[in-house]
Predict the 3D structure of the following.
Amino acid sequence: MHTLSSSLRVIWACLKKDLKSTSSEPLFTLVSIILPLNVLLLMGLLVISGGLAPTAVVMQDSGPLAQQFYAAMKEAHSFVLQPATTQQANALIEQGRIVAVVTIPADFDTRMRQHQSVAVEVKINNLNTDFTNDIRRALPLSITSFYAKAEPSMVTITPQEIDAYPQDLGYIPYLAVPILVIGLMVGGMVQAGTAAAVEWERETVKELLLSPASLVAIVLGKMLAAFLIGLAGAVVVLVVLIALMGIWPVHWGELIGFTLLVLVLFTAWGTLLGTWLQRRTPVATLAIGLCVPLFFLSGPFGPISFFAPLEQLVARVFPVYYAIVVLQHAFHGFTLNTSGIGINLLILAAYTLGGLILATMVLRRSTVAH
Amino acid sequence: MVQAFVRAVWTICKKDLRVWLRQPSNVAITVLPALALLFVDALSAGAVGRSPVALVTLDQGPRGQQMAQVIHQADLFRVSDATPAQAQVLYNNLDVVAILTIPANFTQSVEAHAPIHIEVQINNLNTDFTNDIRRAVPDAITQFYQQRGGESPIKVTLQEQNLRSQDIQLFQYSAMPLLLLLLVVSGLVSSSLAAASEWETHTIKELLLSPASSGAIITGKVLTGFVTTFALGVLVLGVGDLLGWVQPVGVYWLEVLLILALVALFSAGLGVTLGALLERIQPVSSAAIVIALYLFFLTGGTAVLAFDPGWLQTVATFVPLYYGRHALEMAIFYQSSDQLGRDSTVLAGSALLAVGLGILAMRRGMADAR
């Protein structure tokens, strides 16, 4: 029977041993610490466009109505506009620098005043339906907004928007939270997984298994060491998000508490992965390689209930989803599911406990196999 | 002389292939990220661009019903018809992004040319979903007016001119860069591990003491990476063709195979360089997958590069995958060889440069080992 004090001693010894091992490989430790930041940069490339279509506008008419149409396009939440001549616009779209060219004809104002139809030419680089449809839908928005201001008596049907939140949150601040979660996942799993697997690669696991120490205490000690190193990586990412990118959390207490819980969770699962695979290479490569698919699978773009039922089902399998839910609440005060923050936290805690129990079980099985 | 060289290359290639096949976890980690992303794409393909909304039609008159029909048929939303109370429940449960309400006096107001609003209650927690709704509602209004033909007050019409012969479905569009990701991950990971393992397991000594020339050793290493990567690429392309994801036609099969071969050679060369430079499996495996992901995302990932900022588009032109992606898009989607000369020259040059760097790195490593 392991007493509490002996278990604490084992935890402390394993923690010290792993921290000392880590300090003997300063380059790898440094790489581990900046790994979440690396994920932030990598995933940042995904969202940097902000979903706005770079579009050239050829203003063949410079009359007031044509100018109003241009202004309506600018306010359509869909374009990054740049005025251009026909030649410049064609060159830009051929080079793939822009995705659309809108040409406002020379007789725009005249025909509008005479209530005659006006054809606005739209040349689209129709690469794929998703992006192309965004442009196709943004132009009617520009047209209705234009009429609402220029000829309010003509187009009488207009949308009246009632927003749930006082202001929209940008694409990047919103997606920064799921990216943070993925960074915590990669940082925690790589550090914990490699620390566990290295015991097999160096065959030091024999000493651990033959010692009278409790297996749970060994796992906890190793997890704690990986957690402390992962914490350094988490702090680096949070500093970048908050201080450099200006994404200020609404609930500081929640941010600190939830970040710690999420990091413990992924440390537990990293330990499990390392104990199971027993080799550092597949652990590190899997943790890094699967970060992008897991990001997309876990509902990073909005409440998962807005997506197809199968997507919802798959997302709910992964703890990344629940981590995103609680951290979106901490950062932006958003509610992304109806379960309540408490239930989401309980699920995360259950995943953490599950990871710890499974890692201990795998370690126990390897005792028999050894 | 030549015979001995070929025999040495073949022997090393056979040995590395056997080692590769004996490590299924390494094979799995090379294919998992791309396959997982393909799964994500397939999962989300159905609902892209169509947000779930609740539609409350309070007007039973002809115009109100017509507007409701337009909203249903416009392929802009996933619509749930609801009473005001039901809609509020759906909205509160996060089952819909927005509630669209057609007011009771809609028909009366439209026929009297009086201003009338379609109420849009939006859960505006991020701009992505919110802007989709903001674009879609005016699109529906425009379609409603268009049904009135010549009587439509909207005189501004859009004359769409597509740059390409057809729109590509998002899933197909994303599948193709994922094929490139698969090639790059596979080439980089397998070649770098094969090279680094010679140092880590000290088998480099045996290789150097053998009568095989260093040129044969290096060629054998690159060839293994190329063969495994290319074979994997052809296999996935074949499966993609059978499933209808990516379907080259006629002579364009050759073009696609050429590009796959060049990308495979580039990745294998880069992998050997990395493995020979770092000489240790652990940092090599992490670095290989991170480099592969950066190369992938710097060329737009699964999105459209033209939406990204200008500086990123400029950076992309220095990444060889940019040219591979362009050539594959042209051949697979548009049955075109547009700029094939440029694309294949850049890819071939990059592949040769990568192999050249690999040779230099291996030679340097071998000299150190001597």
